[in-house]
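Hi V.,

You were right to ask for the full record rather than a summary. Here it is.
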Amino acid sequence: MNPADLSSGTPAASFQSVFGPLNLDGEVPLATGGDRHIFQHPHMPSLLVKVMDMRARAVYLEARPFKRWYKQYQRESAYRVYLNEISEYVTTTTRPSGVWQVPMARILGVAQTTLGLGLVVEKIRDGEGNIAPTVADLARQGKFDAALSAQLDEFFDDLADAHVVMHDVSASNIACGLNADGKPGLYLIDGFGVLPLIPLYAWSKRLNRRRIRRKYAEMRASLARRLATPAG
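Predicted structure:
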């Protein structure tokens, strides 16, 4: 993000304006995932706030009795996902490959909001400052070309090299745009972090690379079917 955004010399960048409590009442999410709403940070153009959708989570757990049973013993409850993502982010961005070199949206921390605890992350944007389209969006718009295909191959090679553990390899979790420094590229915005009780892929870079390649091949096959289906 732009260091000027966090300058203590401007009232708009006070601690409270960044970390809350942030008033999100009445705000419309920029995007909604399986269990979270994504809001524009009310004071920082280069940041987003991810907030848990407790209603969607309750419906999800109601249909899965075993998960509902063991998750009741997790002190962090629904917010375990924040810890998973922060842990993966810290682990991968401190490897010898170099801090900030991993193609992920950066995580700033957590903030209190009127909708519950939020995860504050870097906003990947388009040229107009709006939230950037995902690879899935571009495929739906007929903009998945040879250049993007090659870029996607390199992106997943970079993730495997950095030993990023992903639990959801999806075209909807990859944004194509500019980071807060204005650098264009593909960025992982969701679906990362170790979830299994036995973190096999966190232990073995080789097994993780193999899994990433397999899941990426499945994702490309899904994109190919989507591209082959006429719009409308």
